[in-house]
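Milestone M4 deliverable, item 7.
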Amino acid sequence: NANLEKCNLLGANLEGAKLENVKWGKHYKVINELEAEEAYKSGNIKFANEKYREAEEVYRAIKISMQSQTLGDETGEFFIREMISKRKQFKKFSAARIGSKIIELTTGYGERLNNILFTVIGIIIACMLLYGIQGVSYGDTTIGFFSNDYDLLTTLGQLFYFSVVVYSTVGFGEMIPIGALGKTIMIFEGITGGLVLAILIIALYKKTMDR
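Output delivered:
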């Protein structure tokens, strides 16, 4: 029940410390990260990177201590803050920083189920719409936005079904993409689906085991 808001925990030995119901402050940010943000805004990049490095060390120490106490949800929050602090040390428009930001938004670094579920749904719907441009072949007919074989509602339903089948890598084979665009989207969706579903399963497992 301690109030550790804006407390500098750099170098603190947290072994054996009970960290339940601790007040950490807004978004679980420690003082080191807050100082880094202020330095970054003022243009002092070197000092900001030092503070981000300190924050990363503090978050890692808190995370390790919490893992031993099975404080799952808060452990995940500090892991996310650790990864954010690490990302902020990269150059602003570097591939590593952009890639890390994408991972945060899409999966919350594997800790946020809502992000992962929204990513799954978003990819399925986006690919469904892209498949409809050139269409997919179904028997002797074509399912697409520019085909007259089916009405719009049926077309959307069939394309959604096809997108789910591809994403889940089930691959029944009764529908096949038409053209280079459809095949490219199918490859992307199949690979992405396998990766994100694996992350989702791991996240669900961790949430279950924590309880």
